[in-house]
Specification:
Belongs to the protein kinase superfamily. AGC Ser/Thr protein kinase family. cAMP subfamily. This protein is an alpha+beta fold. 36% of the residues lie in helices and 12% in strands.
Amino acid sequence: MAQARNPSFGQNVSTNSALQRLDNLASRFFNKYRKGNQEKSQESDGPHVSEYTIIWDGAMKEFLDKAKDEFLRKWECPLQSTTCLDDFERLKTLGTGSFGRVMLVKHRETEQYYAMKILDKQKVVKLKQIEHTLNEKRILQAVSFPFLVRLVYNLCHCRVYVSKKHKLLCHFLCHIHPHARFFAAQIVLTFEYLHSLDLIYRDLKPENLLIDQHGYIQVTDFGFAKRVKGRTWTLCGTPEYLAPEIILSKGYNKAVDWWALGVLIYEMAAGYPPFFADQPIQIYEKIVSGKVRFPSHFSSDLKDLLRNLLQVDLTKRFGNLKNGVNDIKNHKWFATTDWIAIYEKKVEAPIIPKCRGPSDTSNFDDYDEEEIRISETEKCAKEFLEF
């Protein structure tokens, strides 16, 4: 189902052993290809293929193949509960949603801070979100990428993520337009990774993007993510970010994420989305029309990229063509982007959220606290059998 633009929250596990293995693997691949490129440059003073072509194509393909093996291993053997609710001290609500809330918690034994997502199972069933909830849990426990949140504990009624201090990207929209390329590059790499695993994200928007203490993005809220090898037909997402093929119920594939990337880049650069109106139906009409108006300060390269991402014709949309994501990464608007440095977080971030420590919640809004009560009887055991 389509949803209003409300904040969602989650946290990253950069210290997780699986992610560390993939980071080390990626570094070895990238360094190998970087060395090869330097040797080729020294051998000839004449023209040679671009650094991106030599380094990234081969390195990323090999890395993604290894990453997919790691993902499939965890996908087939989901994370089992290794702790209980009483192991955590619940400190403060960071955000609320339709059927639950996210809280900052501290592990009593290790004194590590985490973000805990607590679900009301009866509301999940009532809102017919069981499949989405199960998908989110299974996906998050299996993915490992620098710009993704990751599940570390799965309890009966909640999920736990390692906590780092973040601020929602939407809080920075009025300051972010000069730096849209920096954040967009991270989303491109993230979608390249997810799509290689046959995952469609389906809910890109500023409210689902966190900026960590190093100034890099963390993509959160995988409630609409789904593993799809062909097409799917579910109407879900946020009205301003829906691709036309979702609205028209034609069946869709991973290309909807590249459309959403176009919407996000536009909103980061302009401060408002390309399609907006008072009512969702009016937004949908504008989206399917395919007509986009650009602010005067948009560069010609930016407008060209957006025209190719916000392309109603799927046979012409960047990311969905023969060259796949390379049409986006090789575009002139990204000409100055060092993709390897972005992946390795070696590019100096333009925005660093202020943080006084692991228990600092000043970057989040205040919410009324409610007592968390666990039912003594399992009322939705059948529906959550695989949870």
